[in-house]
Amino acid sequence: MPKTTTKKTKHRNGRQRERPGIFGRKPFWTGFSLVVIYFLMDALLLNTNEEMDTLTLGLCLGGALALFYLYYVHARVFRPEKKDAHDIPSFCKHPRRVAGIGFLILALFSFLLFFGYDPLFTDWFPALGDQYYRSSLTLLILIAPMIEELAFRYFFYDRWARRKFGVVKGILLTGLIFVICHPVTNMEGAILYWIPTLAFYMVYESFGLYGSIAAHMIFNFVAL
């Protein structure tokens, strides 16, 4: 009978280690799937004519966090580390801890902002609360940064384009895809989108995935 393959392979010292899962082996298509999921959330949350009920909105935010854990955190914590990846800052000595603790902080911040929406956007930022629905703010400030940074900076750039084409070409290629995926209607708008896009790459290279997510959140909040 033919031998069946497993998800484990031997090190030279005889220990077993797991191979990367499907998300790690197919970074381009993994990033593509995240972009599709984000566009579905965008259609559901952003282009609405009425306020979405809290339960549905909470499920969308929880789903985004669950996707982030499934696509990134689980593999980073429980599977072999990718030493040539830039998603964890080089000065961090314990990448797995950073990935896990960073996710806990991201989840805590997301739920604090979600449940503290009324006092935050009623007392501190009433203009935003009057101009945007809660669903739109949740998408733009919380969901978009974590899903877009995971798709474009980690999977498209770090895991795929940078290794295939190099740093400069990888940034230009995936940055162009990032700009095209946004509502750009003219050349001026495309140029303006490149400024924060390049900034996100610089932050990613220096402070990793969680750093670029934080920068993206701050930029979207200020831009609103």
Task: Explain what the structure shows.
With 224 residues, the chain is an all-alpha fold. It has one domain (23-223). Helices cover 74% and strands 3% of the residues. The chain is built from nine helices and two strands; from the N terminus they run ββααααααααα. Strands 1-2 form a two-stranded antiparallel sheet. Helix 2 (27-45) runs antiparallel to helix 7 and helix 7 runs antiparallel to helix 8. The radius of gyration is 19 Å and the shape is globular. Residues 1-18 have low confidence and may be disordered.
Write a concise keyword list for the protein shown above.
single chain, two-stranded antiparallel ribbon, 224 residues, 9 helices, globular, mainly alpha
Concise account of the structure shown:
The protein has 224 residues and is mostly helical.
Distance between the termini: 63 Å
The number of helical runs is: 9
> How many distinct folded domains?
1
Q: Please state the average pLDDT score.
A: 85
Largest sheet features: 2 strands, antiparallel
Strand content bin: under 5%
Q: Describe the strand arrangement of the main beta sheet, using strand numbers.
A: 1-2
Structural class: mainly alpha
Shape: globular
pLDDT under 50 segments (min length 5)? Answer: 1-18
Give the proportion of residues in helices. Answer: over 70%
Number of strands: 2
Order of helices and strands: EEHHHHHHHHH
Radius of gyration of CA atoms, rounded to a whole number: 19 Å
